[in-house]
Design goal:
Blueprint (H helix, E strand, L loop, with lengths): L9 E4 L2 E4 L8 E5 L9 H11 L1 H21 L5 H25 L2
Antiparallel strand pairs: 1-2, 2-3
Helix pairs in contact: 2-3
């Protein structure tokens, strides 16, 4: 399933999360924060930075899933150590697949 979000990178600037892809207004607004009565607290800025990192985080999840798929092919599971490693990779793959699905949900 492909993503429908605006391509990154995204940046936090002056109470907004902006994309580098220029529209008629000079930037593409992803989201705004701290408007109105809500103060711009450190937590608000931390949340904004996390949101702005979303495209890169999604890509990192996909790359991690691909790396796990490659590792599965080259790690032998014929002994206990190999089986334990493969089991850990399988658990991480499920976590990454779930995270990717959440990000790409319609």
């Amino acid at each position: 399933m492909g993503t429908k979000h605006t391509k990154g990178p995204w940046h936090v600037l002056d109470g907004a999360i902006l994309c580098e892809h220029v529209n008629d207004y000079g930037n593409f607004l992803i989201a705004s924060f701290g408007r109105g009565d809500a103060p711009n607290t450190p937590e608000v800025f931390a949340n904004a930075r996390l949101i702005a990192a979303a495209p890169e985080l999604l890509e990192a999840c996909k790359e991690g899933l691909n790396a796990i798929a490659t590792a599965r092919e080259v790690i032998p599971d014929v002994d206990m150590e190999g089986r334990e490693i493969v089991e850990q990779l399988e658990q991480q793959a499920v976590l990454l697949e779930t995270t990717i699905a959440l990000a790409e949900a319609n």
